[in-house]
Amino acid sequence: MSSSKGSNEVISYMHHFFSYFGDQNNFLLWYAAWRVGHKLHETVDIHFLIAGRTKFSPDCGFELIKQAYMKTRVNTLADIAEVVENSSPECHLNIPQLVGNADGRVLVETFDWQQHLSPKFRKLPEIKSYQHFSFDAKRPGVVLARTHCDAEPVAFQLLRDSAVLPPVDSLPVLAPPGLNIDRQTYLYEKIWPFCADEARDITCPAPRVTAQKSQQKSMLKRM
Predict the structure, then answer these.
(1) By three-state DSSP, how is residue 118 classified?
(2) Average pLDDT, whole number, for the chain?
(3) Contact 190/168 with Cβ under 8 angstroms?
(4) Angle (deg, nearest 10), helices 26-37 and 7-20
(5) How many CB atoms lie within 10 A of CB 219?
(6) How many CA within 13 A on the CB side of residue 152?
(7) Which residues, 6+ apart, have CB-to-CB distance to 57 below 8 Å?
(8) pTM score, whole prediction
(9) Is 141 exposed, middle or buried (0-12, 13-18, 19+ CB in 10 A)?
(10) In this prediction, what percent of the chain has a pLDDT beyond 90?
């Protein structure tokens, strides 16, 4: 099971987070406007770091995960989740959420937000010049954009038709693409020897093509 880091994936994971736990990109703005427009949130504020400023409070959580990871042998996705779970036992700062498990079962669906939102929304002009964005359910589709925190906001209607929002249900699902044969082969040839015995067939099993060839060779030997 595999997923990329595009806007569909990022927004899908945000959608899951908002549903269960309470990058400067037009799709992300459209998603915030869609969510607030359907009153799934009353307000949403999005703040981007100034270019060159890469340190902020969540880095503390990542550092705790890094420290725990360095002390733990990790063979599987379940092991990774356990590392995250145990990285902050006292304050429960880090909570793991797998998007899928080793047998291919999807735990957090990825939706095609680009397909779902594009027909009803339009782009914010000069989006890269703004750092702060605000949305309010009282003004469906409107984003208040600021170049910096003390700047006067600029209001822009993102909806092509302010009375028409993409529906909240029947979201188009994207099936996970899985690992291609090159990646499967790499894991099997380079990583398999370093995995614990019980994890080898979970994390880096023989590539499907290799497995098929092995089966064919076995059948030829029996003939």
Answers:
(1) coil
(2) 86
(3) no
(4) 30
(5) 9
(6) 0
(7) none
(8) 0.74
(9) buried
(10) 62
